[in-house]
Amino acid sequence: MTSTDEDLVARSRGGDVESFNELILRWERPIYALAYRVIGREEDARDVCQETFLRAFRALPGFKGQAKFSSWLYRIALNLCRDWVRRRRRAPLVEVPEGVDPLDLAADREPTESIEDLVSRRELSDAVAEAMAVLPEEQRTAIILKEYHGMTFQEISDLQGCPLSTVKTRLYQGLTVLRRQLEKNGLGSALGRGKNAPVSHEEAKRV
């Protein structure tokens, strides 16, 4: 039977290193994908991912379980991403290595996906990433957490430390700019396509 995060955390706090390694295996891909989407650089995203788990391991004795382990881990990663952006005092850049789509690390492809579909999806991913890069950090992060990591408005509110209404506003405004940027490239309808397509403006305004 698969252990829950809570079980693994409890054993890790008791000195079981293998349990913490299992937590790393469970959450490494989503944390890396989050870092990549926020800062847009593969190497730096890997550094942030590694530092996230290092800090989590060091802080584990003080983790009391008031929040889910995953939420606590996401908060550490987001803080590290913000530090990265502020240190460089510039907007994140999107650098997709040739022949590699790092965004696939967070979501498996459909097994029946054709070559044409794969190429189309990668082109769309690149276009969305470029459009996302122009958004303010708070709006971009809200969209990433909602659309690519499936978080609720309340979870995003807790992570970003802001009211629920602020999260909805950030998401709505971010999607407005994102749609406008994609329309410039003739991809305005892309926001309603695919399992990872961003929510509509109407959905952004609902809980």
What would you note in describing this structure?
The chain has 2 domains: 1-97, RNA polymerase sigma factor, region 2, helix turn helix motif (Rna Polymerase Sigma Factor, Chain: A, Orthogonal Bundle), CATH 1.10.1740; 113-207, Arc Repressor Mutant, subunit A (Orthogonal Bundle). It has helices at 5-13, 17-39, 42-59, 69-88, 115-132, 137-148, 153-160, 164-184, 201-204. It starts with a helix and ends with a helix. Helix 1 packs across helix 2 (17-39), helix 2 (17-39) packs across helix 4 (69-88) and helix 5 (115-132) crosses helix 8. The protein is elongated, with a radius of gyration of 18 Å. It is mostly helical and 207 residues long.
Write the layout of secondary structure elements.
Elements: H1 5-13, H2 17-39, H3 42-59, H4 69-88, H5 115-132, H6 137-148, H7 153-160, H8 164-184, H9 201-204
Which properties best describe this structure?
207 residues; mainly alpha; Rna Polymerase Sigma Factor, Chain: A; Arc Repressor Mutant, subunit A; 2 domains; 9 helices; elongated; disordered C terminus
Outline of this structure?
This protein has helices spanning 5-13, 17-39, 42-59, 69-88, 115-132, 137-148, 153-160, 164-184, 201-204.
Structural class: mainly alpha
Tertiary shape: elongated
Summed up, the helix count is 9
Q: In the CATH hierarchy, what is the architecture of the largest domain at level 2?
A: Orthogonal Bundle
Order of helices and strands: HHHHHHHHH
- Termini distance? 34 Å
